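Section 5.1 Outputs to date
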Amino acid sequence: MRIRTGFDIAFESSQPTPMILMLNLHPSRVADLITPETVTFDPPVPVNRYSDGFGNLCTRILAPVGHLAIAADFIVGDSGLPDPVVPSAPQAAVQDLPDDVLVFLMGSRYCDTDRLSAVAWELFGQTPLGWPRVQAIVDYVHQRIRFNYMRADATRTAHDGYTQQVGVCRDFAHLAITLCRCMNIPARYCTGYLGDIGVPAVPDPMDFSAWFEAYLDGRWYTFDARHNKPRIGRIVMARGRDATDCALTTNFGFQQLVHFAVHTDEVT
């Protein structure tokens, strides 16, 4: 399968503004590129690229005063297979986890495990270990939160999502991640492209998507609490503890977002 994807984003800055961008594909998907993934800047600006502590590709720029447009358009190869489902995947004991996985058991900016630990054990303490427990958490979050794009809130934590029962895809991911961590299941946040491939198209404007991965049977598996079904054409851009580590644009100064468009479509 070939998927054409990309974005067109623009900002207005009242002063030169340093920015960190995570707008490239995750390095794990670079080998799948069919056409070059070239991110353009109008006007052109110097760029400095580096890898962060989670292996994401980051770009540093200094946005000029006035208008800055950032865009990309490229084609990615994909297996066309849905997210794998392995109900028999076991859960490892904490003492047996690899050292680099332990960080994904800890609380983080949006995943306030200390406020949800008692809730998690009350809800899921009797569920079977491993994949069935993660799926029980996903089922619960899918029912608990009502998706509402107009109720997006950049400050909403997992506990806020649990109490407010409304949010966007990142809120579904944060709550599911937090409940998994409370149950000693490592979980990490993912963001990237997810088009309406293999499912009925929705009328909402396309956006970047958020989901999560749980560590079971010695590897990371994809789960999506918002959609709660295996999906086709998921293309990851960044992974981390939560949305703080995976912010696609971070600005160090006042800016106004004046244009935002994302496209993800199967090439037939």
